[in-house]
Amino acid sequence: MNRSERRKHARSKGTRSARAAARSFEASLERARGHLLSGQLDEAEKLCDGVLAKQRANAEAMHIKGLAARGRGHAQSAIDCLTGAAKAAPERADIQYNLGIAFGEAKRLEEAEAAYRRAIALDPGNPNYHNNLGSLLNRIGRHEDALESFKAALGLDENHLQARGNLGSTLLELKQPEAAISELRRAVAAAPDYADAHNNLANAYVDAGDSAKAIDAYAVAIALRPGAAVFHYNLGNALLDTGAVNEAIAAYRQSLALEPSRAEIRSNYLYSLQFEPEVTSQKLLTVHEDWNSRHGKMNPVGAYAEARFDPDRRLRLGFVSADFGRHPVGYFLVRPLECLDRSQTEIICYSNRVNVDETTERLMAASDNWIDARQDTNEQLARRIWDDEIDILFEISGHSRGNRLGIYAMKPAPLQISWGIGYPGATGLDAIDALLTDARHIPHHDAANFKERLLHLPQGQFCFDPPVDAPDVSSLPAIGNGHITFGCLSQPRKINGMVLDAWSRIFAAVPDSRLILGYGGMDDAANVSRIIDEFGAGGISPDRITILGSAPHGDFLGRYNMVDLSLDTFPYSGGLTTLEALWMGVPMITFPGKSCAGRHAAGHLSAMGLNELIADDLDGYRELAVKLAGDTERLAGLRAGLRSRLAASPICDGPGFAADFLAAVRDLWRERCIEGAKPGGA
Fold it and tell me: Containing domain of residue 662, as a range?
């Protein structure tokens, strides 16, 4: 064989070897794909490593390895592998798409959007790419842009169920529930066995104020997929909104049985227990401690600088909430922040709120720094607070919706205080050092049922900012009507069977009396049906009951000008609603419950010196209602003086409250300074 023939033979042999190697690599990668699909992630990764050891720039090997890393929850490894794959094969849209998913899971949202858009540029005809981009845009809060992405997906495939459902959910975010219902009905019609479509439709019915249809749709979703914890959770929310407390609690328990590790489900369950008729502080302590044992293990961000622990320094106060606006939290927080001594305090608010209203604007003006924390993970927000060197971090949402309880376990501030203006009582977290309260809401005999140190403010834990949109107080309606009109302008969930039974007995004893109920969602068909049926069982005709829904705040307050006497709810007593009733000249009757939530109205009335409106128990409550209903002269006298009496009370003394508040937290800070820089807290 001459030299030329030898060279030709070598080239041929090399080509055959390369082809054999390529076939071997492809065979390895095919097996890796199979392992990936079957969940054998370690095996998939080993095969990819074998290919990459010989062919470092093999895009598919890096791609599969990145997907395996994603499957194990190794976000950064997944991103590294998929980024390498994208560089090796920039023409492949599927790699960009999966890189977008990985960035999204790591909450690197801008990079995720860029990857999705690269995938769409490479393959604009794939509806999945448009759908995932839309889902990401929703997470960022760009709902209008998300809408266009879902429409693009449906333009490519009108039967794309996920895009149809996402389009409906986006319309809900844009406050278009009827349009959402239309889209989601199409999804259900196209795939009647698709459980998610029924769940999404139910969500739309909730937003449209039709809880009866929502509950039915959730039931269908659950029948189709009984193991989906989120369906039971959503059903619990809908049931609670209609006042079906026991049924809501049962739904939450089922959700937790399916997914016990979900902190937000357990939080809603704890919140629902505040409305349970037989609730006590002792029972609440037990279930809140359970939440803490599962989700509240302390994992401090880091140690604090020793130099921070100056007992007389200007205190950096941090507040975290999704309710900085028209909400009891906003209403009870705005005056204290406006009145705090700014030479002694610096205020930083970390907001998870989407909408901005006039109360939000006042809170922003009262803050030294306002931070939009909606896109922060708990870890990111805790680190931000730690970096901001917050001295005292206030927890004001408890287990209510939108809470960020997870950050407190990371101890981002050396002193952490719960203040029950958004959630009654304690959270149960070991990471909370104290609970700001008063002796009316948590009397000394109940202190053993709270694990936190109790800071009793001398004049009460609430500071009321009188509403500027409140109309003038009217004369007593009974004088013109010739009959007494009772009223309750509280949430439907507070009006349980025990409450309706007590009211039925009162109305039976005051034969010509009327009742006005009014609140957002009160006129929901499911709620109306429940209330009318309960009264009917007590022999009360529906023509004596007026049920009203939501209204602008000034108009809502104007409803009190139709009410002679307000009836409190139990076991969850009226807080802000009690003060608004009193501001409108309408006396509220109550009796103290066995939990912090059950003592709101009694606490407010006691602070005003109106103990004659506080009964000892349920029997006394009914007797007091009947007695006052028969004394229009007494009611008229109370009505004429309640607004001025409330205005002159400690509840409306913003500067006085702020001084007491600052004195209490300053004393606790001084004690904390003795503890020094250890991250565990006081």
Answer: 306-463+657-675
Question: How far apart (Å, rounded) are the C-alpha atoms in residues 289 and 519?
Answer: 33
The owner of tokens 């990985």 is 102
- For residue 60, the surrounding DSSP H or E stretch is helix 59-71
Contact 499, 245 (CB under 8 A): no
pLDDT in tens, 214-265: 999 999 999 999 999 999 999 999 999 998 999 999 999 999 999 999 999 9
Cis peptide leading into residue 587 (ω within 30°): no
Cα end-to-end span (Å), the chain: 90
| Inter-CA distances, 601 with 207, 462, 561, 593, Å | 30, 12, 20, 10
Q: How far apart are CA 7 and CA 510, in angstroms?
A: 113
Quick check: is 527 in a domain? yes
How many distinct structural domains can be found in the chain? 2
Digit-coded pLDDT (tens) for 581-640: 999 999 999 999 999 999 999 999 999 999 999 999 999 999 999 999 999 999 999 999
Residue 317 has pLDDT above 70, yes or no: yes
CA distances from 33 to 49, 60, 83, 499 (A): 13, 10, 19, 61
pTM for the model stands at: 0.85
Q: What is the rounded distance in angstroms from the CA atom of residue 643 to the CA atom of residue 489?
A: 18
CB 591 within 8 A of CB 616: yes
- 318 shares a domain with 341: yes
Helix (H, G, I), strand (E, B), or coil: what is residue 565?
A: strand
